């Protein structure tokens, strides 16, 4: 499981011209699900991303988490994060969780996030999404957990 965190001033997801999720200041999280990932792995990653200190404190140091700041979290599934790009000129997705399993896990992760964090929004699994963001910093981190 991979989560690409981007500290944002704002972010939104549109599908077919309709806004399906948006946040103000907070984290845009692009989520890649790999074979072997499950709810246990997901809960560990969610706990980490909600506590990951990427926001500035009064002294300008990254000492605050999205949970500390009360910022939003926009979670978007992105299977391309599971790509193996080590060989050749075309990505391999053999390590990605199959679509049916990935959708089920993604929806369960959305429920966990809603339970654990007040300000959440979500992309639509499998949709052709247009994601817009204002990356604050820019600040971007890749978190990885393995099953």
Automatic annotation (TrEMBL):
Q: Where does this chain carry the motif Gly-cisPro motif, important for rejection of L-amino acids?
A: 137-138
Q: Where in the cell is it found?
A: Cytoplasm
Which EC numbers does the record give?
Answer: 3.1.1.96, 3.1.1.-
Give a yes or no for keyword Membrane in this entry: no
Query: What are the alphabetically sorted keywords of the record?
Result: Cytoplasm, Hydrolase, RNA-binding, tRNA-binding
InterPro entries recorded: Daa-tRNA_deacyls_DTD, DTD-like_sf
Task: Quote the cellular component terms of the Gene Ontology held in the record.
Answer: cytoplasm
One annotated GO molecular function: Ser(Gly)-tRNA(Ala) hydrolase activity
Q: Name one GO biological process term.
A: D-amino acid catabolic process
Q: How does it assemble?
A: Homodimer.
Task: Write down what this protein is called.
Answer: D-aminoacyl-tRNA deacylase
